[in-house]
Q: What sequence folds into this?
């Protein structure tokens, strides 16, 4: 599933085998995450996600990953020089035999390893990402899916505050934008999502990355199946008891119009609506 509840206060101290980025505690981003992206109810959807800032500062694990990725690239080039030359320039992150491209790939991988510590993204390749050349596409998508309607209605002025906040943290005009494109969304974001989105705002000159990811699921799917079943069972049982009491007290109940007698089926429909 999409495990978003790693304690943010612990992030700078997370260590392990996989390469991770230096987390930058940013109060305004933390506040937006806890207010708007933590099991937030938007109409019939539940939204889960995070927005986090990271410092691009190479540590030992990142240097190790850089060497390993470089080795893989060199191996691919030597195994098929002609095919590989054509593909080199078309990588979404830039020519993949360039050190700067490998460094960017390592930074994106390390950011994901830090944000989603239940996964290890160390084997991702440049082709697993997408470069977004037009910031308006990102702005429109985040506005349309998240900020414009339900969230703006819930927290007036949130859209302007969100973009002002992001700009103050990472300086949007100086950012390159990327998105991770998983082979199987459910492995990262959990199954049954109505929509998912993720964007990296990479400011190379400030050596900073902001990673924003969120997904939405329907409320009734969000609850574990057994909870739904138990709740329905309880409601149906208590409803049957009520009917039994009414039948004992009012023998004429059977002659009432059908529309006035709720059934277990209509009860479950009402509960799920």
A:
């Amino acid at each position: 599933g999409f495990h978003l509840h790693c304690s943010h206060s612990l992030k700078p101290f997370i260590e392990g085998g996989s390469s991770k980025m230096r987390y930058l505690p940013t109060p305004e981003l933390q506040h937006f995450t806890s207010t708007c992206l933590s099991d937030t109810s938007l109409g019939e959807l539940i939204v889960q996600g995070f927005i986090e800032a990271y410092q691009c500062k190479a540590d030992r694990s990142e240097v190790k990953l850089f060497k390993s990725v470089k080795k893989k690239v060199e191996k691919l080039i030597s195994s098929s020089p002609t095919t590989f030359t054509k593909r080199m320039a078309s990588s979404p992150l830039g020519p993949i035999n360039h050190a700067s491209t490998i460094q960017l790939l390592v930074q994106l991988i390390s950011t994901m390893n830090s944000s989603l510590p239940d996964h290890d993204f160390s084997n991702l390749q440049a082709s697993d990402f997408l470069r977004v050349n037009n910031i308006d596409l990102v702005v429109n998508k985040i506005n349309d899916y998240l900020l414009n309607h339900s969230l703006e209605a819930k927290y007036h002025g949130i859209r302007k505050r969100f973009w002002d906040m992001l700009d103050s943290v990472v300086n949007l005009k100086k950012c390159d934008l990327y998105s991770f494109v998983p082979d199987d969304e459910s492995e990262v974001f959990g199954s049954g999502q109505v929509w998912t989105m993720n964007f990296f705002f990479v400011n190379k000159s400030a050596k900073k990355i902001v990673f924003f990811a969120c997904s939405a699921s329907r409320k009734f799917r969000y609850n574990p199946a057994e909870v739904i079943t138990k709740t329905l069972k309880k409601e149906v049982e208590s409803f049957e008891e009520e009917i039994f009491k009414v039948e004992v007290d009012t023998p004429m109940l059977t002659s009432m119009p059908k529309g006035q007698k709720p059934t277990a089926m209509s009860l479950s429909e009402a509960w799920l609506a």
Remarks:
- The first helix runs from residue 27 to 36.
- The mean pLDDT is 78.
